[in-house]
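Q: Start with the shorter request: fold the first protein.
A: Done. Sequence, then structure:
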Amino acid sequence: MKKILLATAFALTVSFANAQLKYGLKAGVNFANMDISSQGMSISPKSQTSFHLTGFVDVAISEKFSFQPGLSFQGKGYKVD
């Protein structure tokens, strides 16, 4: 009887915890731009167009507060000819 009660409590806890998790992807475009100036000299390298992609998990702690860890890949930089 104890095993059945413990298994039921565990199943309810896991289903309740799973209901508080949301996950997803964020994606977009990056437009990197840079101006370098020093001692009266100015250089403006070519703009680099890239993308970013982020996977995240939204963990609800309360109704108005959540924690959102994620992993992001982003392209950055500029081109100099």
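Q: Next, the second protein, separately.
A: Sequence, then structure:
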Amino acid sequence: MSEVLTYSYRYSSELRKGAKEDELFMSQYSEVQKGNQSCFFWGKLTEPYTLSRCLITLNNIVQSSFNLSPFERSLMKDPIVTAGNDTIRFEGFSHCAGVYARVDVLPGGHDGEFLENGTTNVDFNQPMINALSGLRKADNVVLSVGQKSVGLHQKGGSVVERKVPLPVKWIKGLTTVQIYMAQAEQAYVLSKMQCLHLFRTLPKGTVKTDYYLVERGGKFLFSPVKSNSAILIGGVHRLRLLEPLIPLLDQMKVYPHKEMQSTTWQLYFGNLVFSFSISRDHWRGFSGEGAALESLIEDVPEDFIEAMEKFSYANQSFNATLFSVDHGIDLNKVDNLTSRLSAMGLLGFDLDGNEFFYRRLPYKLNRILSLNPRLKEAIKLLENNKVEIVSNDGSRVEAKVVGTGVHHVVIIEEASARCTCTWYAQNQGERGPCKHILAVKKKTL
């Protein structure tokens, strides 16, 4: 299977300078967008300077990598934008898929019209980044997501084709990180002064050991020494990507994952929010964590997906309980439903509202679902009749799974599962279940 997807844009994104105001046009791409409008949003930005700095930081993140070669880092990635429900969200990943970032333009951050709602890729080219860098606080900027059909064309009337390689792990990470964010809880709220002090304690260079966010006497710092209530941070040097934004923020909130598998840092700037999530270690990408795998064991009926696409709109809050009642889904499966829909790229997560929101990634569902090799291997084990259930009394399952020259034993008891394979021995379930556990769970549905 190819390690990259290729997509193209009809136009290049650009910032056009005008006598009274500037206009920012962002070219779009989608595999699934069905609407007739070629533009999602059109209107003025109320905080263009701050947004430009957030978008530049987002661009720096999607061009960065913490475990790849310089050649691999040179490949450009383009962010995903969701427009609808009076909100615009830009999101992206580092090339290594270990850093996730999202810029939310809230209702007070713009004065414009949503011509259509949806999710798409946007072209983040270097000339546009250079133009954003030149914006001043007094500048007026009109943002257009997509290319409006009347009077807004590529300079000179030419059409520019641009093909961009996108690693498949980038898409896998986007579906996994939402689940981690949903399992995070707010730990600290830091003022601007506390943030400035905190970031002065960042260690120099690449850090290979764990650091901790600790509070001492009302001040916060990064320390290699663990203490009570400390938050574990692997690859703390990745936080340097946020340094340009610290002098501009109002406050910052810190959300550690319940099992310290990630941390999310939310920076607030008036009507803008910048979310920044990092994986447990700098060499571990969200794409390989496997948090979404168990959610994909049970299929989501096609009529549920059709109902979501028919009645949901971009950035709309998703109430799983109401959705379950409307469609006759067992309420005991509500939590699993949201995880499954997130793993399919149909939901994002908003930490401030503590809720999921509808946004369909601009890729076909079968493409997203095909990006999980462990799940595919589990299905292959079932198709080849290599899974034998030894016992199942409703609370404990024991099974044998045929491996290469060996039989693996899988034990599933209530919320725990273990296997005798090498993968489980190395990871102890921290990075999701092995293919043998997945196969047994799917067989016992």
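Q: Describe the second briefly.
A: DSSP finds twelve helices and 26 strands in the chain. The CA atoms of residues 178 and 349 lie 6 Å apart.
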